[in-house]
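Running this now, will post back.
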Amino acid sequence: MSTLHINRDKTTITTYVAICQTFLDGVVRLIEAQAAFGSVMHTLTTYRSQKGKLKSDDEVLTEILAMFDNISLEQFWSAQYVNMISSLVYAASLFDTFLNESTIFLFLLIPDAIGKTYQVPLRSLVDAQSTRGSILTEVAKQRAREISFKSFKDRLSFLRDTFGLPIALTGKTLQTLDHFTNLRNSAVHDQGFLALSLETSGCIKHGVRASPKFPSNILPKDSDKAERTFRFIALTVADDIFKHILKAETGALPRHLGQFIEKMLASSPPEL
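Update: finished.
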């Protein structure tokens, strides 16, 4: 990479700052959503534990409390389960988007990395109206999309091998990434609990292979650990791009972003 001309002007660096900021804004949104959900559920459980002791002459408050009364225990646990799944999937989606946008950014910054033998679809040339910048943009998006079908681990290896990024992660961190990636894939693609089999008689039989109410084996702490794992790895990638590609040390970044990256990477990532 050192032999290539890389545009490191202010606009380019600002663009990657925006990519990082978008990811972190999503993380904040997730944390805020979890805090709001936790507050609502805590309020509900506190009220139910005091049921019969609370009295009010306020009609609005009475109506609100009646709504709490109508929430069954089954609904409570269903809400908890779906929230855990949703938080895990959302955290993974933020990480997925960050990796994809970082890959597109690097391809646009270093077009040679796309590969000299890469064939450009005719449709991309037509849609791009044949200007160099628009064609490269379309090709970078297309190539990044192809890479996005790989596993998170393989995508990190691609960034490391193609752009010379260190992305120094411990074996335990990679093991944790694998675990939450598999958990996310299971949550997205398999919420079934039936086990189907073909009997010698030709009949199709079904049994139970997981909890009918909670098919995915996920705990409340999992979504939080997953978010922190994805965040740590994303910031590792971001820090490497700033330092090794853009040659912009954290001191040259917006103060809040530079300090946040340094603080987060100074702490140990979560483990299983």
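Residues 10-266 form one domain. More later if anyone needs it.
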